[in-house]
From TrEMBL:
It comes from the Bacteria. InterPro entries: 6-PGluconate_DH-like_C_sf (IPR008927), GDPman_DH (IPR028358), NAD(P)-bd_dom_sf (IPR036291), UDP-Glc/GDP-Man (IPR017476), UDP-Glc/GDP-Man_DH_C (IPR014027), UDP-Glc/GDP-Man_DH_C_sf (IPR036220), UDP-Glc/GDP-Man_DH_dimer (IPR014026), UDP-Glc/GDP-Man_DH_N (IPR001732). Residues 320-427 form the UDP-glucose/GDP-mannose dehydrogenase C-terminal domain. Gene3D superfamilies: 1.20.5.170, NAD(P)-binding Rossmann-like Domain. Belongs to the UDP-glucose/GDP-mannose dehydrogenase family. It is an enzyme of class 1 (oxidoreductase). This is GDP-mannose 6-dehydrogenase. PANTHER family: GDP-MANNOSE 6-DEHYDROGENASE, UDP-GLUCOSE 6-DEHYDROGENASE TUAD. Keywords: Alginate biosynthesis, NAD, Oxidoreductase. Its EC number is 1.1.1.132. Pathway: Glycan biosynthesis; alginate biosynthesis.
Length: 441
């Protein structure tokens, strides 16, 4: 394929060289003439393992050249890969100036090109927040070209997962390939760029592709911060942190796994809140600052409050709650977020009915009973005997359980509004219904 790559920094330079190495005909584009001259001389404008030899080879064979002329690059290619920087503004917001400028330049060049040579596809590889492509860049492109994206021009988002220092290796052995496609033809074009590379391919909506890069980087930062904070606490307590983490990492069932990584409702129970408090307290006593660990419980509380706010926004006063125990299949109410949710709604004057097949006031014993009598002493008058009793009572229902009896009874369309705390099995269908609200979807 004939590809123009806009921006010859780390991402653009590596992408251009590697695509050329795969046999594509690549034109690198940059406003910096020094970078253009370096590439045309067979030299890398960035310091990176293997990149120098690769660029020398693909320039020698004629697979890669560089220019500062946007029109020349666009007219000489079928695909434009946008790899310009998106730095932070002083207030932390994303700077899209370079993206906007390049998009307009590509669009103007395409308009001058007059559509000769078939449909051109613009692929955004730069990191950008969800909504940037569809709400900002596509309108610029359509205005400049005088055509419709997805019809006259192909558009896709293709985030990169290259690590500086190993980016060439990462390109040829990617953890995954993500294609945010405006239309199937655009996605097919991007897929063809990477034909033969290993790793799973995900073809998703454009905003999903934009968000995936942020999910990855936020989690990477979180992992490093978590490990460093835990290491500092362990050191203060005289424990070998690397030994702790070796055992931690060996657990591929709960720790290094998909477990607990699905957006949903707040956590609770007799272990997680208690042990987080103890660990943070131990760190404070040892004079060790642990901002990540110390904000986990406040973050959890904020997420619970979002559910309360969803109910408040409905303007309804008769509420139903399905689920009360902190985990399905148990009657354990200790530090259950659903108990906390019920307490907050009841405290705000909502007329509340609750159904949980595993919870019966007459069966609650010991710490469980003591906890509920302290937190929700009016539970007996709030508990319903059946799913139907709650549905008949409520104007808005909060679903915090996957009890089959509850799921099968939830109405579509007419009936109470649904606040989904767990992502119902038919959530994607319900998203089109006006009475459905999902938490953290």
């Amino acid at each position: 394929m004939r590809i123009s790559v806009f921006g010859l920094g780390y991402v653009g330079c590596v992408s251009a060289a590697c695509l050329a190495g795969m046999g594509h005909e690549v034109i690198g584009v940059d406003v910096n003439q020094v970078k253009v001259d370096l590439v045309n001389d067979g030299k890398a404008p960035v310091v990176e393992e293997r990149i120098g030899d690769l660029i020398a080879e693909v320039v020698r064979t004629g697979s890669l050249r560089a220019t500062s002329d946007v029109r020349e690059a666009v007219m000489g290619s079928d695909v434009s890969l946008v790899c310009v920087g998106t730095p932070s503004e002083p207030n932390g917001s994303l700077c899209t100036t370079y993206l906007e400028r390049v998009t307009e330049q590509i669009g103007t060049a395409l308009a001058d090109h007059g559509g000769q040579g078939g449909r051109h596809t613009v692929v955004f590889r730069s990191t950008m927040l969800p909504g940037t492509c569809l709400n900002l860049l596509v309108p610029i492109l359509e205005k400049s070209v005088g055509g419709t994206a997805g019809v006259d021009i192909g558009v896709a988002v293709n985030p990169e997962f290259l690590r500086e220092g190993t980016s060439v290796r990462d390109f040829f052995d990617p953890p995954k390939t993500v294609i945010g496609e405006l239309d199937p033809a655009s996605g097919d074009t991007v897929l063809a760029l990477y034909e033969g590379l290993p790793g799973e391919v995900f073809r998703v909506p454009v905003p999903t592709a934009e968000a995936i890069k942020y999910a990855d980087n936020a989690f990477h930062g979180l992992k490093i911060g978590f490990a460093n904070e835990l290491g500092a606490v362990c050191q203060a307590l005289g424990v070998d942190s690397h030994q702790v983490m070796d055992v931690f990492l060996a657990d591929r069932k709960l720790n290094i796994s998909p477990a607990y990584l699905r957006p949903g409702f707040a956590f609770g129970g007799s272990c997680l809140p208690k042990d987080l408090r103890s660990l943070v307290h131990a760190a404070q006593r040892a004079d060790v600052s642990v901002p990540i660990l110390s904000h986990v419980l406040p973050s959890n509380s904020d997420h619970l409050q979002r559910a309360v706010e969803l109910v408040e926004r409905t303007g309804k006063r008769r509420a139903g709650l399905f689920g009360l125990s902190f985990k399905p299949g148990t009657d354990d109410l200790r530090e259950s977020p659903l108990v906390e949710l019920a307490e907050r709604l009841f405290g705000k004057g909502y007329d509340l009915k609750i159904y949980d097949a595993n919870v019966s006031l007459s069966r609650l014993l010991g710490a469980n009973r003591e906890y509920i009598e302290t937190r929700l002493p009016h539970l007996a008058q709030l508990l319903a005997d059946s799913v139907d009793e709650v549905l008949e009572h409520a104007e808005v229902c909060l679903v915090g359980t996957r009890d089959p009896a509850v799921l099968s009874a939830l109405p579509h369309g007419d009936g109470p509004l649904i606040v989904d705390l767990i992502r119902l099995p038919d959530a994607e269908t319900r998203l089109t219904e006006p009475g459905y609200m999902g938490l953290a979807w």
